[in-house]
Design goal:
- The chain has helices at 6-10, 13-18, 24-37, 55-61, 74-83, 120-133, 147-153, 206-215, and strands at 45-49, 66-71, 89-91, 104-109, 134-145, 157-162, 165-174, 179-187, 194-202, 218-224, 238-245.
- By secondary structure, it is of the alpha/beta class.
- It has 2 domains: 6-146 and 204-245, Vaccinia Virus protein VP39 (Rossmann fold, 3-Layer(aba) Sandwich), CATH 3.40.50.150; 149-201, S-adenosyl-L-methionine-dependent methyltransferases (Single Sheet), CATH 2.20.130.10.
- The strands form 2 sheets. It has a 7-stranded mixed β-sheet, with helices on both faces. Strands 6-7-8-9 form a 4-stranded antiparallel β-sheet.
- Helix 4 (55-61) links the parallel strand 1 (45-49) and strand 2.
Length: 246
């Protein structure tokens, strides 16, 4: 039997329990950064790809922006319904987006929602789908981790208690440093049960991300290193690329 992809198992109730209060202020900063660079009209349509529990949708909606959310996880979509009740939500796979060509003025991919798949070809499929659903001249904002920063700051192991459960996380570089994996072990307080999950993200350099975008008709315009508009650098936590559909 083929093992279910890690992202189908992990982004559920246990994920929400482990991260009950992701930073809404961080989401507000990310959306403010976006809107400072891509002014939207009243009738602009926005898709937040892999919207998760909806914190960026909430920030967009609070500014009167007509935003859609798409995610593969039912539990995260239920949470997003509470966070952004006016935003239409769709369940779907980002490799085959359920939207017509030239639908959106803007697509956002916040908080490292890219690079999850087994092959680079699947990541290319995601970018091709984004280009297909963007209107000519529309924009993509891809908010990704900084591969160099991840490699230099990787914490091999940590543990903490969350809601009475012990959570152990073990991280390692794989594929010669081309990807990072995290094993998550959640132990019941009474020792009655243990759950195991896994994350895996491909580590693209900034130039590689931009080349992938350009190959799919997405012209890179600007590259930033944090949610306050700082430059990319070895010690910057993010690589945020703004691109335009050709």
């Amino acid at each position: 039997m083929t093992e279910s992809p890690w992202f189908r198992r992990w982004f559920g109730e246990d994920y929400l329990h482990l991260y009950p209060h992701r930073d809404q202020e961080e989401a507000e900063d990310a959306v403010a950064l976006l809107l400072a660079r891509v002014p939207l009209q009243e009738d602009s349509s926005v898709l937040d790809l892999a919207c998760g529990p909806g914190r960026h949708l909430q920030a967009l909606a609070s500014r009167g922006i007509h935003a859609f959310g798409l995610d593969l996880s039912f539990p995260l979509l239920r949470k997003a319904t509470q966070a952004a009740p006016r935003c239409p939500l769709v369940r779907g796979d980002m490799r085959t987006l359920p939207f017509r060509d030239d639908t959106f003025h803007l697509v956002t991919s916040f908080f490292t929602s890219f690079g999850y798949f087994d092959t680079e070809g699947e990541d290319r499929d995601v970018l091709a789908e984004i280009r297909r659903i963007l209107r000519p001249g529309g924009h993509l904002l891809l908010d990704y981790l900084n591969a160099e920063w991840v490699r230099s700051t990787l914490t091999p192991r940590d543990s903490r208690e969350v809601g009475g459960r012990e959570v152990v996380q073990v991280r390692r570089l794989v594929e010669g440093g081309r990807a990072v994996e995290k094993e998550i072990v959640i132990r019941d307080a009474e020792g009655l049960g243990t759950k195991n999950f896994r994350e895996r993200v491909r580590l693209y350099e900034a130039q590689e991300l931009e080349a992938l975008m350009a190959d799919q008709g997405l012209e890179p315009l600007e590259r930033l290193g944090d949610y306050h508009g700082g430059p990319t650098a070895p010690d910057a936590p993010r690589v945020i690329v703004l691109a335009r559909a050709g």
